[in-house]
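Worked Example 4.2. Consider the chain below.
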Amino acid sequence: MIVRTLERRFAVLRVLCSNKNREIYVCRDLEEEGAGLYTLARFRDPALNCQLLPLLARQQDNPAFEDYLGLFTQDGDLYARFRYSEAPTLAQRLEREDLSLRERLEIGGNLLERMALLNMPAPLQFEALQQGNVTVDAALQVRFNYVLGSMTTFFNVNMGFVCLQTSELLQTLFAPELAAQAVPELEAYLRQLKGGSFKTYLEIYGGYDQVRKKLLQRSLDGPVEPATRPFRLWERIKRLSRFVRPVLAGLVLVAALCYLVYTLLLPPQPKGTPVFFNYIGTVEIQGAEKS
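Applying the procedure from the previous section yields the following structure tokens:
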């Protein structure tokens, strides 16, 4: 299938989504060899197109949003073109690989940094943050795909929705540590996200960066461990045991030495009434006590 404009031809390689209101294609630009792949979003609902057109048209004056490559109309349908990432999704990376805490902290930072750099409208960012749209390459760089699934309600989406979706992704990214209650700093940050404390992408990134620095410092001192009350109590007992063990060993040694000295100075006496023998067979033992 070929999608044609006045200037370009896009070869559709596969269809990511198709319904009565939209189709999402992965395309190659036949006029630009080696230019990589694109997502081409086709919107068919005239009422929706009237609402989407101003939003997308404004982004042509947003040079920071480099993933967005413009729009065009054809046969009454609205098309928007975005960059496409072939890297595995975040969910796939987490499922296939045992990523360390430091690696996952880097992924989280790259994710939020990318959001701040692109500075896209909240409705598009909310869509880009869906788990199937967040990709992570071998260098842990984060890119977005744009399978725009909920654009029919985009006018209700604000930064609060973006914060909630960001918190869900970070909860997935740090699920082991959160389950073990090992990262109270991150838990506090997630509560801020869910409460809508951040109003811009830079604020979201800045809050996370402080948490990341603290956790990286903690990781330098050893594994990040749970902070639950039973765990803290057990850690205190273990720390105390390092001092108690030598003391107990010394006490045992002193007790053993005391017992040795006691047995040397006061040898054990036989117990019970002594038994005397007056005869050996029929021969009387001279000087033996008469019993």
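The longest helix spans residues 229-265. Residues 230-241 have pLDDT under 50 and may be disordered. Compare this with Example 4.1 before moving on.
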